[in-house]
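the two lines:
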Amino acid sequence: MPKSQVSLTVNGETVEALVEPRTLLIHFLREQLNLTGPHIGCETSHCGACTVDLDGKSVKSCTMFAVQANGADVRTIEGMAAADGTLHALQEGFREMHGLQCGFCTPGMIMRAYRLLQENGSPTEEEIRFGIAGNLCRCTGYQNIVKAIQYAAAKLGGVPLREAAE
Amino acid sequence: MIPGSFAYHRPASVKEAVALLAELGEEGRALAGGHSLIPMMKLRLASPAHLVDLGGVAELKGIRSDGGDIVIGAMTTQHELVGSELLGAKLPILRETALVIADPQVRYVGTLGGNVANGDPGNDMPAVMMCLGAAYHVTGKAGERRIAARDFYQGAYFTALEPGEILTAIRIPLPAAGHGFAYEKLKRKIGDYATAAAAVVLTMSGGRVATCAIGLTNVAETPLWAEEAGRILAGSALDAATVKKAVAAAEAITSPASDTRGPAHYRTKMAGVMLTRALARAKERARA
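prediction for all of em together
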């Protein structure tokens, strides 16, 4: 099958590549661009470990072809920290609030939480839980993930969170 | 899970898409949001040789008023339905339904057109469209036609859509201002298809039901329009005895499969429970 030419922005950089039409976006990111932050979990659109930000939407990159992302602006977990290594407020929140144990779901959780906070800068606990309903975590029981997102929302809002992790 | 090989096409207009699909015949398949088709392709339950991606067709997007109707482009996403002020004011049942479909990521990409055209009895919007008396705009090589949602569904994954045709828009006659509505869905977890679900749109006049339409999700090979149940309720004050009679009429037209969501008789009963709840909530919301 002839390959398709795609041109897109990934973490602020322009990427030009040839892809087979059947190549899923997650495989393109991981295997052609070596961005192994987005994870392959269930491969059935349920777990959210492959979540990336694409044109202002959180998408499951296992359920989209790379050719569909032609012209898009994509952000992965690799694009979250500042150039000098300073962590994004969400990354800091997950560290401070023990929002991860094995860490497998974390890149997807953070990318989903990133878009959630873009749309709603001070979500309630219920809104956070509904907002991350497409991301599964098998370790934490979600308590500290919610707190990590609250931590980031508070930090980005300029009023540091006073609660501790569970 | 890697899908089979296919050639990718990205037309810029409905005309171009329809011409492509006509030329490709059975080898071609239209791709909307892809959240039903791509998983099927990954499992190799579908292996189209050509995919015609409708993502670049601008005329398939958007929500507009047209006289007494609302017309929604087929490629409008569930996320866009949730965020629409027009729908929030005029057709809030769509927001309520979209919010119980899948999860945030899927709603950003999954489309209304894909949801209603796919023919999956587990999809939520078809029963709502039957309830609302919606019509689907369909374009093929021979031109455009409209098919009533109530006549569209023929079996699981079988619809009135002919090969080469694209569902381009959904036309919904606006229910009267002050109408009551509810979509009640029983599911095991977020992201799940319904064990059973019921859509209700009704109008009240002087404490009695003036009109009542009911749709049921995932309790048969197709979504169901519970016409008889709606007729029983018309003119009543939604008293317990009449509701019970209507629920029995609705349960009688179900024929769910026994599956991991429960045995058939349980799912039929749950359709009745969802309908009872939806009626109560719709009544509460109705004015006059």
